From TrEMBL:
Residues 7-241 form the AB hydrolase-1 domain. It comes from Kribbella orskensis. GO terms for molecular function: hydrolase activity. This is Alpha-beta hydrolase superfamily lysophospholipase. Pfam families: Abhydrolase_6. Keywords: Hydrolase. Transmembrane segments: none annotated. It comes from the Bacteria.
Length: 269
């Protein structure tokens, strides 16, 4: 079997595929086919979603997963899947469902069963979780809230530019659902089988300064996996949540892809 020649980049909440724009170009220059699918209804640009968040309100996790699977299913061979934030949780779900040759979960949101909740995560998500009424709203972050949660290691000028280019509201219902998942019976939307021996290799990438999905969350999520498949964690010192846009991202992009390619090759029969 040939090595993966396609990379699928999965964005997180408060973001769109535009947040991967530099990574798409970088990987294409290395000769890969690169796809950065948006969630259903995210075919429009950031500015449109800020003006009319209706597509955001319509989202559910099953809708997102079904859409991502439909994109990957059309590919001639399994891709490398790299997800950021909520996209990291979706990457875990996709791998658990049998998609992908290898996966990278970058500053990942946790899947069901991960109960570690650091104080910085509470503060980062408070704009949504402070009121149950937000379950029925699309909740934006202010520039100050965005800087704390996403770009706390960036300059004010860098944060403002990234906020204006990338930030959109997030679906409050999905975020509330992820919190309640650990307190409701049965499998919820972000459940994965931690004992799945057929899952592709998975790397958790963690920024040491990440406020919204801190290293404790990544370590706990990784420790939940009890399967015989490869599950590793790599920490990058000095990086915030919006690691894909922080200075030095090119080296990280190359390192995680090289990890994925090498483990995908080793995982082949």
């Amino acid at each position: 079997m040939a090595a993966p020649d396609t990379i699928v980049l999965v964005h997180g909440f408060w973001m769109t595929p535009r947040s991967w724009e530099n990574w798409v170009k970088h990987y294409e220059e290395r000769g890969f086919r690169v796809l950065a699918p948006g969630y259903p209804g995210f075919e429009v640009e950031v500015e449109s979603l800020n003006a009319d968040p209706t597509p955001i309100l319509k989202l559910t996790v099953p809708m997102i997963i079904e859409h991502l699977e439909s994109v990957i299913r059309e590919l001639p061979s399994p891709p490398v899947i790299i997800g950021h934030s909520a996209g990291g949780a979706f990457t875990q779900i996709l791998l658990d469902h049998g998609f992908g040759a290898a996966g990278v979960a970058m500053n990942s949101a946790p899947t069901e069963g991960v109960r570690v909740v650091p104080l910085s995560q509470v503060k980062s998500t408070l704009p949504v979780l402070k009121s149950p009424a937000n379950r029925h709203k699309a909740i934006p972050l202010s520039l100050e809230e965005f800087k704390y949660a996403f770009t706390n290691t960036f300059t004010d000028e860098e944060s403002k530019a990234l906020y204006e280019r990338y930030a959109i509201p997030a679906n409050g219902g999905i975020l509330w659902g992820s919190v309640l998942a650990n307190f409701q019976p049965g499998h919820q939307d972000t459940w994965v089988d931690y004992h799945n021996d057929h899952r592709a290799p998975l790397l958790f990438v963690s920024g040491s300064e990440d406020h919204i999905m801190p290293p404790e969350v990544q370590r706990s999520n990784a420790k939940h996996y009890k399967s015989d498949t490869v599950t590793e964690v790599k920490l990058y010192e000095g990086y915030a949540h919006l690691l894909p846009a922080q200075a030095g991202w090119e080296s990280i992009a190359d390192e995680v892809l090289d990890w994925a390619l090498s483990h995908a090759a080793a995982d082949k029969p």
